[in-house]
């Protein structure tokens, strides 16, 4: 089996992750819900994981890192905790439905959305520029200068793998007084992120992709001075007799029991990332992607989507074979060759419209540091045999 669907979720993980989860299930109590040894063990694991995440993302401190179940929860928390009826909000055509659907909900409640599209989106679907799926930075800059409360922006497209220049955009936001919310679902753990340098006010991430942690883990990091209205209220372990949920971070955004066992696995994954180094992991997955790309370019009728001239990008290759249905091609690879990819719409409707692939979708090959160059070449050869 060759797994090339890491943009959806990691399949290959360090052995230490599974071992940490199993160990936590056997030994950990409920962190921050008691002072006995089992509860304290849980609290220590959770706090140490906050420290590692704050270090990785250059967040202001571990107390500014709150845990969630995934990026979707983090983004809902950020969007609904910042945007109010009447606010103008900027967003890009590269976004996942985890961004778009909460924003559409806020739009129905009176917010106004301003969407920055892609360069060449008005051209024919076969146009080389349109297929690159490039964000229109000038259009985005114009929107920001026109006055908006917040910008929600992905760090990399989950469809094309194109990387967004969040440092440049963050500086625009800082000058314009715009709250900058970044979706790091496709980049956290692999592409460097510095909240201070990149002027990020709110960073949303998941633990089960590039961070290689368990599903059901994720988080939200807040910059200094940024407040988010809680999405949930309830048990907190502190201020029991208050009728209001505590406002102090990270408790303010962590109502209820955390997934301590999953967070233990995430801590182990973060330890692996720190030991290996993001640069080393990025080179490994990039080598596999480049080998795959070199071969598939030679397949007659192949249509590639994304900007592969970028020096840095997510290790994703989206493509189609002529007019073949992307789901059929993906199923062929799985059933005939045990090569696992993802066909269809990838929860990215605006990006597919920008590329002109709404009806056909695309076959997405997404690589991890555990994929080898040989696996990439086998996948390309199998695709050529469709």
From TrEMBL:
**Which molecular-function annotations from GO does this UniProt entry contain?**
catalytic activity
Stored SUPFAM superfamilies: PLP-dependent transferases
Pfam families named among the record's database cross-references = Aminotran_5
Q: Which InterPro entries match?
A: Aminotrans_V_dom, PyrdxlP-dep_Trfase, PyrdxlP-dep_Trfase_major, PyrdxlP-dep_Trfase_small
Residue limits of the Aminotransferase class V domain? 2-376
Name the PANTHER family on file. CYSTEINE DESULFURASE, ISOPENICILLIN N EPIMERASE
What's the protein called, per UniProt? Cysteine desulfurase family protein
| Source species | Enterocloster lavalensis
């Amino acid at each position: 089996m060759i797994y090339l669907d890491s943009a959806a979720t990691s399949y290959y993980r360090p052995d230490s992750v599974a071992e940490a989860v199993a160990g936590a299930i056997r030994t950990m109590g409920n962190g921050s819900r008691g002072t006995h040894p089992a509860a304290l063990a849980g609290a220590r694991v959770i706090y140490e994981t906050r420290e590692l995440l704050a270090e990785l993302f250059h967040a202001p401190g571990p107390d500014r890192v709150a845990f969630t179940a995934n990026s979707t929860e983090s983004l809902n928390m950020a969007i609904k905790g910042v945007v109010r009826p009447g606010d103008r909000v900027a967003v890009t055509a590269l976004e996942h439905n985890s961004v778009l659907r909460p924003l559409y909900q806020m739009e129905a409640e009176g917010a106004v959305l301003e969407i920055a599209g892609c360069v060449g989106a008005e051209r024919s679907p076969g146009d080389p520029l349109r297929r690159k799926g490039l964000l229109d930075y000038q259009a985005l800059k114009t929107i920001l200068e026109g006055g908006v409360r917040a910008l929600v922006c992905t760090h990399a497209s989950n469809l094309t793998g194109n990387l967004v220049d969040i440092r440049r955009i963050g500086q625009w936001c800082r000058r314009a007084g715009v709250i900058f919310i970044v979706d790091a679902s496709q980049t956290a753990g692999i592409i460097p992120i510095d909240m201070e340098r990149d002027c990020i006010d709110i960073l949303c991430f998941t633990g089960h992709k590039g961070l290689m942690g368990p599903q059901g883990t994720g988080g939200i990091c807040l910059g200094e001075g940024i407040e988010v209205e809680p999405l949930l209220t309830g048990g907190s372990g502190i201020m029991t007799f208050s009728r209001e949920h505590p406002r102090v971070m990270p408790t303010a955004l962590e109502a209820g029991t955390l997934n301590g066992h999953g967070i233990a696995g995430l801590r182990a994954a973060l330890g692996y990332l720190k030991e290996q180094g993001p640069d080393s992991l990025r080179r490994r997955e990039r080598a596999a992607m480049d080998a795959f790309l070199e071969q598939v370019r030679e397949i007659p009728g192949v249509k590639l989507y994304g900007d592969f001239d970028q020096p840095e990008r997510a290790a994703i290759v989206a493509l189609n074979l002529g007019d073949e249905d992307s789901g059929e091609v993906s199923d062929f690879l799985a059933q005939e060759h045990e090569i696992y990819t993802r066909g269809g719409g990838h929860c990215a409707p605006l990006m597919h419209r920008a590329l002109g692939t709404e009806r056909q979708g695309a076959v997405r090959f997404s690589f991890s540091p555990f994929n080898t160059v040989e696996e990439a070449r086998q996948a390309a050869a199998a695709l050529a045999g469709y």
